[in-house]
Amino acid sequence: MRSLILRTIAPIVLHLTLIFSLFLLLYGHNQPGGGFIAGLMTAVGIVLQWVTFDADDGWHRYNWPWDRIFSYGLALSACVGLFGLLSGYFLKGSAYEFNLPFIGEVEVLTAFFFDVGVYAVVVAVLLSILTTFCDRRAVIRGAPK
Amino acid sequence: MIWFLSITIGVLVTAGAYLAMQRRLIQMVLGFSLLSHATNLMIVASGWVGDGFSPILRSYKAPDPATYVDPLPQAMVLTAIVISFAVTAFLLVIALMAYRSFETDDIDEMRRLKG
Amino acid sequence: MESISVAVFFPFAVAVAVPYFANRHRSIAAWMAMLAPVVSLWALVLLYGEWSAAGRGALLYSFSWVPSAGLDVSFLVDGLSIMWGFLVAGVAFLIVLYSNFYLHEHEDLGRYYGWLIAFMGSMMGVVFADHLLTLFISWELTSVTSFFLIGFWSDREAALYGSQKALLITGGGGLAMLAGFLLLGQATGEWHLSKLIAMSGVAGKVSLAAFVLIILGAATKSAQWPFHIWLPNAMEAPTPISAFLHSATMVKAGIYLLSRFYPILGEHPAWGYIVIGLGMTTMIAGGLLSLRAYDLKAILAYGTISQLGLIVTFLGYGGQEAIIGSTLHLYNHAAAKAAMFMIVGIIDHETGTRDVRLLDHLARRMPRAHILAVLAAISLIGVPPMGGFLTKEMLYGVSIHPGGPGEWAAFWPWLTLAAGIITALYHLRFLGAPFWTPAEGTSPKPGHDPSTGFLAAPAILVALAIAFGVAPGLIEGTFVAPAAEATLGGGGHLEFHLALWHGVNQPLVMSIITVAAAGFLYWKLDWVSGILDAVAEMWKKGPGPNKAYDGAIFILKERTWPLLLSLQDGNLRRYLRWSMTVPALLLLAAALWLDWGEGIWPAFSGATFIGASVCILISISALATALFPGRLPAILALGTAGYAIASLYVVLKAPDLALTQIMIESASIILFLLAFWFLPEIKIIPKPLSRRARDWGIAIFLGASSAAGMALAMNSHNLRTIADYFFLTSKPIAGFQNVVNAIIVDYRGYDTLGEITVLVISGVAIHAMLRIVGTMQDEGEGH
């Protein structure tokens, strides 16, 4: 992409997108948002970034081990479920209140960590699918146009 | 409004079903995409009440459930939307692999080639 | 609690473990497998103690399994099931001991012992099950495991035929039995055997259909005529398997079922006629067929069928004496028949053949095996002092004073006597043909007595057969009496005394006649064979159970092709057309069923400007997706539809969905663009107008009926989901203000966990297909 304006703005937009998605993740229990939406927002932000720079090769910069990340995400959510076993049954949600210095009362829901797992899975699966498609071009190029 | 929604869903189903019955793999994938839109819309619409609020509580104490739309279909559809993306991606991959193997994306032609 | 679980479940654990170890350390395979019967026997001994301490009534052990469906796993421990448990585990022990000598080193020991022990576990399940469905499941497990055992030598055509036949007939009978159980449960409202036994007048409530179906289950398993045909074919199994299946377990499961249901259904008016009829026919038919067989195992197989007929006949007569007789005969037959099968296995092993025409005066070369065979056979002929003499006497006694249907009372003793003579005759032939008479040909190996270890298992069994006759007191009070009490319904203690000598009475005379007549007929055996051959020759063209079975299988296998091909022709789009038309018809039927009355259709009102215009936009872009010829316009139209649907979600008060939809749509467009980069341009293939009209017709039909169904559904808001509960508890319990997210991550966290698992699976699948399979194909093609 040759546009100078777009190339200047794109990193700023990416950071704004990431901050906004973090906001969506944290406030999901009271406002529209949550792990699914925040994950999608992050993934789409990254994808737009690479489309902006170079549709052909931009994805290389984001060719992270997504397959491992989504496994960890799933494991995290499952572990939260197992944690619920301690207080009763699988996936039982519980709330803990902490009094942190400077911040004050903070309520932490175990469901939040479950949501973080969902977030990781959604981001990683989306990006894994899209990077895989890009990556396979070398293979698929063999097919007739 | 009910009729508008129903007819929209009907049109989505019609277009999706027609595409799904075509011979080209691409058309089939597009068709299934439209059909999943229709299904999601159907489920959400079933929980809709004309003048209800969106299901985000306005007051902490003693909310009146009758003034909100039904949140359960929304919750189910939210995950369904994400999954339908994954399914579409999967269908596309299958289409690609089939195209690589048979060098055609016409399913009747594939049957003929497979013998 | 523990001992019963160990007795039933431990064999399964061993069955799973054995294949892992057996093929690596072949020498320990048999010893590992032996763990199962030994531990089960030990558990049964403990259980026997518990049961005796509890007063020898019916003990119930139950575990809840699916409490919401009212299903539980419960075990019924009474005299009958304890006796059967010992019988099964005890014979299993001897079979494993014997298998160790019989099997060649190179056989797949893991598979053999694994299925053998799993079969033993299933049998334990059958005899201890209390719930009718648990009984059914164990019952079918025995059919399935025996299928693998009979077909153990899977490279032999005949073994495959035999195992399939056994599975189809006994499994099919099991299904009939399930139907019978369901009718029984419906009629009485009770599913536990223990409660059914305690209930009075069950037989009066049960329909003839239910009765016949349950008996059918028992008859197929116990190889009663005309379902006996699977048993001779099942002789393709390794001989220890035959000994196990056909002496104490598989075929006896039917007997167990009849004994178990005797207190429940014994009062049924059809019991006497059907059960005695089955038993008598089977006893005589089995005996006659045995006389015509030349394979030693076939002789025994038909003999087994005949003996099962004898036990069924006992149960059919009913009454105290008959039940005691049948119980005792179970032991006699299990011991003697298992020993005979084992001796046949030894003959086969040492001479290389089982064909009696090739075996020449084996008594001279295998004296020790000969003695064991004679003792086992005369037990079943009914010669003192063997245990079989006792039961044969009892059968004759019962037949003189039958408890069953009175009309044919005068007829029974004669029929029973005839059956007894035939039984004696085929046992004499079993001894005579291989051991005493010269051969027509020569056997592959001359044969000699095997090692003592090989003879140990049959010797133990023969010793038991003698013990049952000489000292019936050994098992009389401990096993026979409690089992007979339980079979009779569990009321009161039985006082009886078994003894060999009752003085000179009618049964003794009948016994003497039997032995004398059998001896005479054996002397004139050529004459008997001549008659039988002539009858068989005449009947060659006539119908028979085997012909019916083969015909049915032929029709199922070959004649169903046209039907199959017309339904499953491989045309994907034809399947799709069907799967779209049928739901459309169903929706239409539902709409019609709702009655086209007043007020069920919504009014044409209440549309907001924004809502209406978004709906119109969605419709236009959906149709455009279907109609645009190129791929890029189609993707863009689809994307437009997706974004418009996102705005419709806003109208429908679903902000979370709108956000999700927008983001997914963006990702989808990119995905489609990436994928279409590699796919060819859509070339619209010209189709005849009629085909297009048909496709549009189906699509519009489905669309219209969905729209109508949707309109009806949305207009009936009397359906309230559990939403109220979510609203009231979302903040105080889950801590969420956004109820949709509360449902996703908290209330229905299980679903969400499942859904992200689906996401992960699709991610892995796509990864695997493109990165791994794609690369492998390319390397394979060599670029």
What is the 3D shape of chain B? elongated
What's the pLDDT, averaged over the residues of chain A? 78
Residue windows where pLDDT falls under 50 for at least 5 positions of chain B:
none
Q: How many helical stretches of chain A? A: 5
What is the CATH topology classification name of chain B?
A: Helix Hairpins
Protein structure class of chain A: mainly alpha
Total strands of chain B: the figure is 0
Helix segment tally of chain B: 4
Q: Give the helix/strand class of chain B.
A: mainly alpha
User: How do the SSEs of chain A run, as a string of H and E?
Assistant: HHHEEHH
Can you walk through the features of this model?
The complex is a heterotrimer of chains A (145), B (115) and C (783). Chain A is mainly alpha-helical and 145 residues long. In chain A, 64% of the residues lie in helices and 8% in strands. Chain A has helices spanning 4-26, 35-53, 66-86, 110-135, 137-140, and strands at 95-100, 104-109. In chain A, β1 and β2 (104-109) form a beta hairpin. The two termini of chain A are 24 Å apart. In chain A, 39% of the residues are buried. Chain B is mainly α. Chain B has a single domain, classed as Helix Hairpins, CATH 1.10.287.3510. The longest helix of chain B is centred in the last third of the chain and has 32 residues, at 71-102. Chain B is elongated. In chain B, 62% of the residues are buried. Chain C is an all-alpha fold. Among the domains of chain C are: 572-720, Four Helix Bundle (Hemerythrin (Met), subunit A), CATH 1.20.120.1200; 721-783, no CATH class. Helix content of chain C is 75%, strand content 2%. Chains in contact: A-B, A-C, B-C. At the B-C interface, α1, α2 and α3 of B face α26, α27, α28, α29 and α30 of C.
